[in-house]
Amino acid sequence: MRLISFLVPRLAIALITMFGVALLVFIALRLLPGGYADVLLGPFATPEARAQIGAKYGLDQPMPVQFFKWLTALLRGDFGVSMVNKSPVIDELLRRLPVTAEIAVLTLMLALGIGMPLGIASGIRSGGGRGGSGRLVGALGASVPEFVLGSALIFVFSRWSLGLKVGGFVPLLQDPWGNLRSVVLPTASLSVFGIALILRTTRDSVLRVMTEGHILAAVARGETPYQVVRHHILRNAAIPIVTVTATYFGFLLGGAIIAEILFSIPGVGYYVFSSLESRDYAVVQAGVLLASFAFVSLSMLADVAYALIDPRIGAKRSGR
Asked: What is the pLDDT of residue 313?
């Protein structure tokens, strides 16, 4: 019962958020200069030809009518048909989602595997060399844009053959070794910011926890540094780390557009970007909703994780 009372308000907020995102992306696409008819027919098309395209795809109807039809179709599970290749949007998204998901999971694992240990070491030894190194790594990682790092990697590995695939994607089941070679560079370019984000968050959280009285009490009881870190510091420092991890993973699952474009990865981000250029409304709307759903779902999972990590949070948020 407590779990239900904890989740129901969040589900309501999630539904409102998804409706707001759907409304905003629908309006924003229609306000972009140059509609689908302009892209398809070119600047010298006749008004009759433009009107024919508008009538064919329902673009000549009032915007509220178009939105209502699209929303009711969504509620039936119909994401529409691409105006460019005439295929169902949901089929294309599901076909490309495993590509984005693989890169997202590998990137998150790399970011957590490097960022958390460095953040813990930097926070515990904030006054030493490790603390300074952690701050330097965090600052550099957060300040280098993805497209700069990705472009540098493409230049280096195109100039000198080092055994890695610079562009394209090889499915895992088709060729595991080729798959690994094709995902190393996009994963590396994406993970640098994630490493810096998790490192700095972990460091700040560890520093905050270390000033609390129960840490000094644990040291006074004679617990080893490993025991103090594992049983006292990590558990109490976990909530900010869970927050940034969920947000970062939602960004990755939504489609890391820059990396997918740079490395020609046929994922969700690349598909949505190319569809935006051609004003393929159904694809862009569905892609943005998918990214929003990933963020909202991971935020709810983070809320549940808060309650599991610290039961006081769940009791407080459920009104107990």
From this structure: 55
